[in-house]
Design brief:
The protein is of the alpha+beta class and about 400 residues long. The chain has ten helices and twelve strands. Helix 1 packs antiparallel against helix 2 and helix 1 packs parallel to helix 5.
Protein backbone atom coordinates (compact mmCIF):
# COMPACT_ATOMS: atom_id res chain seq x y z
CA UNK A 1 0.00 0.00 0.00
CA UNK A 2 1.19 3.51 -0.77
CA UNK A 3 2.82 4.99 2.36
CA UNK A 4 1.07 8.35 2.15
CA UNK A 5 -2.26 6.63 1.65
CA UNK A 6 -1.73 4.34 4.63
CA UNK A 7 -0.80 7.34 6.79
CA UNK A 8 -3.96 9.17 5.71
CA UNK A 9 -6.13 6.11 6.42
CA UNK A 10 -4.49 5.72 9.83
CA UNK A 11 -5.17 9.36 10.77
CA UNK A 12 -8.77 9.01 9.57
CA UNK A 13 -9.14 5.97 11.82
CA UNK A 14 -7.63 7.88 14.75
CA UNK A 15 -10.00 10.77 14.06
CA UNK A 16 -12.99 8.40 14.21
CA UNK A 17 -11.71 6.92 17.46
CA UNK A 18 -11.22 10.28 19.18
CA UNK A 19 -14.71 11.38 18.06
CA UNK A 20 -16.32 8.30 19.56
CA UNK A 21 -16.80 9.96 23.00
CA UNK A 22 -15.43 6.87 24.75
CA UNK A 23 -13.79 7.08 28.15
CA UNK A 24 -10.03 7.62 28.26
CA UNK A 25 -9.23 3.95 28.95
CA UNK A 26 -11.21 2.71 25.92
CA UNK A 27 -9.87 5.56 23.80
CA UNK A 28 -6.23 4.64 24.44
CA UNK A 29 -6.89 0.92 24.01
CA UNK A 30 -8.36 1.51 20.54
CA UNK A 31 -5.54 3.87 19.56
CA UNK A 32 -2.70 1.48 20.46
CA UNK A 33 -4.49 -1.37 18.64
CA UNK A 34 -4.73 0.82 15.55
CA UNK A 35 -1.02 1.71 15.82
CA UNK A 36 -0.03 -1.96 16.17
CA UNK A 37 -2.17 -2.93 13.18
CA UNK A 38 -1.05 -0.10 10.88
CA UNK A 39 2.68 0.12 11.61
CA UNK A 40 3.39 -3.62 12.02
CA UNK A 41 5.48 -2.81 15.07
CA UNK A 42 6.64 -5.11 17.86
CA UNK A 43 4.29 -3.44 20.37
CA UNK A 44 2.59 -0.18 21.36
CA UNK A 45 1.72 1.07 24.83
CA UNK A 46 0.03 4.20 26.16
CA UNK A 47 0.78 6.08 29.38
CA UNK A 48 -0.92 9.03 31.05
CA UNK A 49 0.74 11.56 33.31
CA UNK A 50 -0.28 11.37 36.94
CA UNK A 51 1.50 13.86 39.13
CA UNK A 52 5.17 13.81 38.19
CA UNK A 53 5.28 10.35 36.60
CA UNK A 54 3.64 8.33 33.84
CA UNK A 55 1.25 5.45 34.51
CA UNK A 56 0.44 2.59 32.16
CA UNK A 57 -3.06 2.61 30.63
CA UNK A 58 -3.19 0.32 27.57
CA UNK A 59 -1.08 -1.79 25.22
CA UNK A 60 -1.17 -3.91 22.08
CA UNK A 61 1.42 -6.34 20.70
CA UNK A 62 3.96 -8.37 22.59
CA UNK A 63 2.62 -9.99 25.73
CA UNK A 64 4.80 -8.03 28.13
CA UNK A 65 4.53 -4.65 26.39
CA UNK A 66 2.04 -3.18 28.78
CA UNK A 67 2.78 -4.58 32.21
CA UNK A 68 1.58 -1.94 34.69
CA UNK A 69 4.28 0.32 36.08
CA UNK A 70 4.33 1.76 39.55
CA UNK A 71 6.97 4.25 38.47
CA UNK A 72 8.55 5.45 35.27
CA UNK A 73 10.73 8.30 34.07
CA UNK A 74 9.71 11.44 36.01
CA UNK A 75 7.82 13.46 33.42
CA UNK A 76 9.31 16.87 34.12
CA UNK A 77 12.88 15.65 34.56
CA UNK A 78 13.11 13.57 31.39
CA UNK A 79 13.81 14.56 27.83
CA UNK A 80 10.31 13.34 27.12
CA UNK A 81 8.79 16.04 29.25
CA UNK A 82 10.72 18.73 27.41
CA UNK A 83 9.91 17.26 24.01
CA UNK A 84 6.31 16.81 24.97
CA UNK A 85 5.78 20.48 25.56
CA UNK A 86 6.57 21.14 21.90
CA UNK A 87 4.68 18.14 20.57
CA UNK A 88 7.75 16.19 19.33
CA UNK A 89 8.79 12.57 19.62
CA UNK A 90 12.02 10.88 20.66
CA UNK A 91 13.72 7.81 19.23
CA UNK A 92 15.74 5.58 21.57
CA UNK A 93 17.87 2.50 20.92
CA UNK A 94 19.03 -0.21 23.30
CA UNK A 95 22.10 1.77 24.38
CA UNK A 96 20.26 5.00 25.19
CA UNK A 97 17.35 3.10 26.73
CA UNK A 98 19.24 0.92 29.19
CA UNK A 99 18.64 3.13 32.23
CA UNK A 100 14.92 3.66 31.61
CA UNK A 101 12.51 1.68 33.75
CA UNK A 102 10.44 0.28 30.88
CA UNK A 103 8.01 -2.65 30.85
CA UNK A 104 9.91 -4.01 27.83
CA UNK A 105 13.70 -3.69 27.70
CA UNK A 106 14.89 -3.14 24.17
CA UNK A 107 16.81 -5.92 22.47
CA UNK A 108 20.00 -5.13 20.52
CA UNK A 109 18.37 -4.01 17.24
CA UNK A 110 15.07 -2.73 18.59
CA UNK A 111 14.18 0.97 18.81
CA UNK A 112 11.58 2.74 20.87
CA UNK A 113 9.73 5.73 19.45
CA UNK A 114 8.23 7.79 22.25
CA UNK A 115 5.41 9.96 20.91
CA UNK A 116 4.18 12.59 23.30
CA UNK A 117 0.43 12.99 23.78
CA UNK A 118 0.06 16.75 23.69
CA UNK A 119 -2.83 19.03 24.57
CA UNK A 120 -3.07 22.84 24.37
CA UNK A 121 -1.80 22.95 27.96
CA UNK A 122 1.23 20.71 27.36
CA UNK A 123 2.24 17.07 27.72
CA UNK A 124 -0.34 14.73 29.26
CA UNK A 125 1.25 11.36 28.47
CA UNK A 126 2.97 9.36 25.77
CA UNK A 127 2.70 6.41 23.40
CA UNK A 128 5.65 4.02 23.19
CA UNK A 129 5.98 2.28 19.84
CA UNK A 130 8.68 -0.44 19.67
CA UNK A 131 10.03 -1.50 16.28
CA UNK A 132 12.19 -4.58 15.70
CA UNK A 133 14.75 -2.40 13.96
CA UNK A 134 15.11 1.23 13.01
CA UNK A 135 14.62 0.45 9.31
CA UNK A 136 11.05 -0.64 10.07
CA UNK A 137 10.23 3.07 10.56
CA UNK A 138 9.00 4.18 7.16
CA UNK A 139 9.19 7.69 5.80
CA UNK A 140 6.46 9.78 7.39
CA UNK A 141 5.71 7.30 10.21
CA UNK A 142 7.17 9.52 12.90
CA UNK A 143 5.32 12.65 11.78
CA UNK A 144 2.07 10.70 11.40
CA UNK A 145 2.35 9.35 14.95
CA UNK A 146 3.11 12.84 16.28
CA UNK A 147 -0.09 14.12 14.61
CA UNK A 148 -1.96 11.20 16.18
CA UNK A 149 -0.50 12.18 19.57
CA UNK A 150 -1.86 15.69 19.16
CA UNK A 151 -5.32 14.44 18.13
CA UNK A 152 -5.34 12.12 21.12
CA UNK A 153 -4.28 14.91 23.46
CA UNK A 154 -7.15 17.12 22.34
CA UNK A 155 -9.60 14.23 22.77
CA UNK A 156 -8.38 13.40 26.29
CA UNK A 157 -8.51 17.03 27.39
CA UNK A 158 -11.99 17.38 25.88
CA UNK A 159 -13.11 14.24 27.73
CA UNK A 160 -11.75 15.57 31.01
CA UNK A 161 -13.38 18.96 30.50
CA UNK A 162 -16.69 17.32 29.63
CA UNK A 163 -16.49 15.24 32.79
CA UNK A 164 -15.69 18.37 34.83
CA UNK A 165 -18.63 20.21 33.26
CA UNK A 166 -21.04 17.35 34.04
CA UNK A 167 -19.82 17.20 37.63
CA UNK A 168 -20.15 20.99 37.94
CA UNK A 169 -23.70 20.83 36.56
CA UNK A 170 -24.61 18.18 39.11
CA UNK A 171 -23.18 20.31 41.91
CA UNK A 172 -25.06 23.38 40.63
CA UNK A 173 -28.31 21.41 40.44
CA UNK A 174 -27.83 20.25 44.01
CA UNK A 175 -27.00 23.80 45.11
CA UNK A 176 -30.09 25.20 43.32
CA UNK A 177 -32.24 22.62 45.08
CA UNK A 178 -30.80 23.65 48.44
CA UNK A 179 -31.43 27.33 47.61
CA UNK A 180 -35.07 26.67 46.72
CA UNK A 181 -35.61 24.69 49.90
CA UNK A 182 -33.89 27.38 51.97
CA UNK A 183 -36.00 30.19 50.44
CA UNK A 184 -39.15 28.20 51.14
CA UNK A 185 -38.16 27.32 54.70
CA UNK A 186 -37.08 30.81 55.72
CA UNK A 187 -40.51 32.21 54.85
CA UNK A 188 -42.21 29.46 56.85
CA UNK A 189 -39.88 29.75 59.85
CA UNK A 190 -40.27 33.54 60.11
CA UNK A 191 -44.02 33.68 59.59
CA UNK A 192 -45.05 30.95 62.01
CA UNK A 193 -43.95 32.65 65.26
CA UNK A 194 -45.39 35.98 64.09
CA UNK A 195 -48.75 34.36 63.39
CA UNK A 196 -48.80 32.83 66.87
CA UNK A 197 -47.87 36.12 68.57
CA UNK A 198 -50.51 38.09 66.67
CA UNK A 199 -53.14 35.43 67.35
CA UNK A 200 -52.49 35.53 71.09
CA UNK A 201 -52.57 39.34 71.10
CA UNK A 202 -55.94 39.38 69.31
CA UNK A 203 -57.33 36.89 71.86
CA UNK A 204 -56.35 39.29 74.65
CA UNK A 205 -58.18 42.10 72.80
CA UNK A 206 -61.37 40.04 72.86
CA UNK A 207 -61.06 39.18 76.55
CA UNK A 208 -63.40 41.01 78.92
CA UNK A 209 -62.22 43.11 81.86
CA UNK A 210 -58.87 43.98 80.28
CA UNK A 211 -57.46 47.33 81.35
CA UNK A 212 -56.79 50.12 78.85
CA UNK A 213 -53.07 49.93 79.58
CA UNK A 214 -53.03 46.27 78.61
CA UNK A 215 -55.05 46.95 75.46
CA UNK A 216 -52.66 49.75 74.55
CA UNK A 217 -49.71 47.37 74.93
CA UNK A 218 -51.51 44.70 72.90
CA UNK A 219 -52.13 47.22 70.11
CA UNK A 220 -48.42 47.99 70.16
CA UNK A 221 -47.58 44.25 69.94
CA UNK A 222 -49.88 43.86 66.92
CA UNK A 223 -48.34 46.89 65.20
CA UNK A 224 -44.85 45.51 65.81
CA UNK A 225 -45.74 42.06 64.47
CA UNK A 226 -47.13 43.74 61.36
CA UNK A 227 -43.88 45.66 60.93
CA UNK A 228 -41.76 42.55 61.47
CA UNK A 229 -44.01 40.62 59.10
CA UNK A 230 -43.50 43.29 56.43
CA UNK A 231 -39.73 43.12 56.91
CA UNK A 232 -39.89 39.32 56.80
CA UNK A 233 -41.75 39.57 53.48
CA UNK A 234 -38.97 41.78 52.11
CA UNK A 235 -36.20 39.47 53.36
CA UNK A 236 -37.99 36.46 51.88
CA UNK A 237 -38.44 38.28 48.58
CA UNK A 238 -34.74 39.16 48.49
CA UNK A 239 -33.77 35.54 49.14
CA UNK A 240 -36.08 34.36 46.39
CA UNK A 241 -34.74 36.92 43.91
CA UNK A 242 -31.09 36.35 44.74
CA UNK A 243 -31.04 32.62 45.44
CA UNK A 244 -33.75 31.16 43.24
CA UNK A 245 -34.78 33.83 40.76
CA UNK A 246 -38.10 35.61 40.52
CA UNK A 247 -41.16 33.94 39.03
CA UNK A 248 -43.39 36.31 37.07
CA UNK A 249 -46.73 35.90 35.34
CA UNK A 250 -47.20 38.74 32.86
CA UNK A 251 -50.79 39.72 32.05
CA UNK A 252 -52.39 42.82 30.44
CA UNK A 253 -53.29 45.33 33.15
CA UNK A 254 -55.12 48.64 33.41
CA UNK A 255 -52.55 50.73 35.30
CA UNK A 256 -55.21 52.97 36.84
CA UNK A 257 -56.95 50.01 38.51
CA UNK A 258 -53.62 48.82 39.93
CA UNK A 259 -52.60 52.24 41.25
CA UNK A 260 -55.92 52.81 42.99
CA UNK A 261 -55.10 49.89 45.30
CA UNK A 262 -52.27 51.94 46.79
CA UNK A 263 -54.61 54.56 48.21
CA UNK A 264 -55.22 52.25 51.20
CA UNK A 265 -51.89 53.55 52.55
CA UNK A 266 -53.43 56.98 53.17
CA UNK A 267 -53.53 58.20 56.76
CA UNK A 268 -54.54 61.34 58.62
CA UNK A 269 -51.29 63.12 57.83
CA UNK A 270 -50.66 61.86 54.30
CA UNK A 271 -53.03 61.90 51.36
CA UNK A 272 -52.33 60.02 48.13
CA UNK A 273 -53.15 61.78 44.87
CA UNK A 274 -53.20 60.00 41.53
CA UNK A 275 -52.28 62.12 38.53
CA UNK A 276 -52.83 59.83 35.57
CA UNK A 277 -52.64 60.53 31.87
CA UNK A 278 -56.06 59.83 30.37
CA UNK A 279 -54.72 57.85 27.41
CA UNK A 280 -52.61 55.37 29.38
CA UNK A 281 -52.44 52.19 27.30
CA UNK A 282 -52.80 48.67 28.75
CA UNK A 283 -49.47 47.25 29.91
CA UNK A 284 -48.25 43.69 30.39
CA UNK A 285 -46.72 43.13 33.82
CA UNK A 286 -46.75 40.90 36.86
CA UNK A 287 -49.36 42.60 39.11
CA UNK A 288 -48.19 41.34 42.55
CA UNK A 289 -44.56 42.34 42.02
CA UNK A 290 -45.32 45.79 40.53
CA UNK A 291 -47.84 46.36 43.32
CA UNK A 292 -44.96 45.65 45.71
CA UNK A 293 -42.90 48.33 43.96
CA UNK A 294 -45.74 50.85 44.34
CA UNK A 295 -46.20 49.88 47.98
CA UNK A 296 -42.49 50.19 48.83
CA UNK A 297 -42.11 53.60 47.15
CA UNK A 298 -45.28 55.07 48.65
CA UNK A 299 -44.52 53.64 52.12
CA UNK A 300 -41.06 55.26 51.91
CA UNK A 301 -42.59 58.57 50.79
CA UNK A 302 -44.86 58.53 53.84
CA UNK A 303 -42.14 57.41 56.26
CA UNK A 304 -39.72 60.12 55.12
CA UNK A 305 -42.36 62.88 55.24
CA UNK A 306 -42.85 63.16 59.02
CA UNK A 307 -44.59 66.53 58.70
CA UNK A 308 -47.29 65.04 56.51
CA UNK A 309 -48.46 66.30 53.15
CA UNK A 310 -49.58 64.74 49.89
CA UNK A 311 -47.87 61.88 48.11
CA UNK A 312 -48.38 62.24 44.37
CA UNK A 313 -48.33 59.26 42.02
CA UNK A 314 -47.99 60.39 38.42
CA UNK A 315 -48.27 58.02 35.45
CA UNK A 316 -47.73 58.99 31.83
CA UNK A 317 -46.69 57.46 28.53
CA UNK A 318 -42.98 57.24 27.79
CA UNK A 319 -42.49 57.47 24.05
CA UNK A 320 -44.53 54.98 22.05
CA UNK A 321 -43.58 51.80 23.86
CA UNK A 322 -43.61 52.44 27.59
CA UNK A 323 -44.91 54.27 30.65
CA UNK A 324 -43.25 56.30 33.39
CA UNK A 325 -44.53 56.20 36.97
CA UNK A 326 -43.29 58.73 39.54
CA UNK A 327 -43.85 58.82 43.31
CA UNK A 328 -43.38 62.37 44.60
CA UNK A 329 -43.25 63.46 48.22
CA UNK A 330 -42.54 66.71 50.05
CA UNK A 331 -40.45 65.11 52.78
CA UNK A 332 -36.94 65.53 54.13
CA UNK A 333 -35.20 64.72 50.85
CA UNK A 334 -31.90 63.00 50.17
CA UNK A 335 -28.43 64.48 49.89
CA UNK A 336 -26.33 63.79 46.80
CA UNK A 337 -23.69 62.01 48.89
CA UNK A 338 -26.29 59.42 49.93
CA UNK A 339 -27.38 58.58 46.35
CA UNK A 340 -24.80 55.76 45.97
CA UNK A 341 -26.35 53.95 48.95
CA UNK A 342 -29.80 53.78 47.38
CA UNK A 343 -30.96 50.52 45.74
CA UNK A 344 -28.35 48.43 47.59
CA UNK A 345 -29.18 45.67 50.05
CA UNK A 346 -29.28 46.64 53.73
CA UNK A 347 -28.27 50.22 52.96
CA UNK A 348 -30.13 53.03 54.72
CA UNK A 349 -29.66 56.74 55.16
CA UNK A 350 -28.86 57.41 58.79
CA UNK A 351 -29.20 60.86 60.32
CA UNK A 352 -31.19 62.59 63.05
CA UNK A 353 -34.22 62.97 60.78
CA UNK A 354 -34.32 59.30 59.77
CA UNK A 355 -33.42 57.52 63.01
CA UNK A 356 -37.08 56.90 63.84
CA UNK A 357 -37.83 55.31 60.45
CA UNK A 358 -38.08 51.53 60.64
CA UNK A 359 -36.78 49.21 57.94
CA UNK A 360 -34.06 46.77 56.90
CA UNK A 361 -32.88 48.69 53.85
CA UNK A 362 -34.35 46.21 51.37
CA UNK A 363 -37.35 48.03 49.87
CA UNK A 364 -35.52 50.03 47.20
CA UNK A 365 -33.26 47.08 46.38
CA UNK A 366 -36.36 44.98 45.61
CA UNK A 367 -37.89 47.82 43.60
CA UNK A 368 -34.81 47.98 41.39
CA UNK A 369 -34.70 44.21 40.89
CA UNK A 370 -38.39 43.96 39.96
CA UNK A 371 -38.34 46.97 37.63
CA UNK A 372 -35.23 45.74 35.83
CA UNK A 373 -36.70 42.24 35.55
CA UNK A 374 -39.63 43.91 33.75
CA UNK A 375 -37.21 45.58 31.34
CA UNK A 376 -37.44 49.02 32.96
CA UNK A 377 -35.21 51.45 34.86
CA UNK A 378 -35.59 53.26 38.18
CA UNK A 379 -34.08 56.61 39.21
CA UNK A 380 -34.33 59.27 41.90
CA UNK A 381 -34.22 63.06 42.05
CA UNK A 382 -34.01 64.74 45.42
CA UNK A 383 -32.63 67.58 47.48
CA UNK A 384 -32.47 67.89 51.26
CA UNK A 385 -35.58 69.65 52.54
CA UNK A 386 -37.31 69.60 49.14
CA UNK A 387 -38.70 66.10 48.96
CA UNK A 388 -37.91 63.23 46.60
CA UNK A 389 -39.16 61.89 43.30
CA UNK A 390 -38.67 58.21 42.56
CA UNK A 391 -39.46 57.38 38.94
CA UNK A 392 -39.37 54.16 36.98
CA UNK A 393 -40.15 53.20 33.43
CA UNK A 394 -41.80 50.03 32.17
CA UNK A 395 -42.16 48.78 28.59
CA UNK A 396 -45.71 48.05 27.44
CA UNK A 397 -44.58 44.51 26.66
CA UNK A 398 -41.82 42.84 28.71
CA UNK A 399 -38.62 41.67 26.98
CA UNK A 400 -38.39 37.94 26.26
CA UNK A 401 -35.70 37.50 28.92
CA UNK A 402 -38.16 38.65 31.59
CA UNK A 403 -40.74 36.06 30.57
CA UNK A 404 -38.47 33.28 31.86
CA UNK A 405 -37.02 35.06 34.93
Amino acid sequence: MNTDKSHLQFLQSIDLIVRSNEDIQALLENVVKEIFKTFKCHSAAAYIAQGSSLTFVASAGAEDAGKPLKFRIPLFESKLGNAGMSGHSRLMNAASDEDAQKPHRLQAAQVRLIVTITSPTGSIGDIDVIFEQENDLREGDRLTLEIAGSLLGFAIQSSRLQKDVLESEKRLEAFDRIKREFASRISHEIRNPLTVIRGQAELIQMTEDVSQDVLHNVDYIIQETEEISRMADQITSVFRHDLVGASYQFVPVNLKDLLEKITVLENQQHSIRLVLEESLPPIELDPPSILQVFHNLVANAIAYSPSGGPVIIRAQTEGLTGVRISVIDCGIGIGATDFPKLFHKFERIWNMETESVRGAGLGLYLCKKIVEDHGGKIEVKSEPGKGSTFSFTLPLKPPRTSLVS
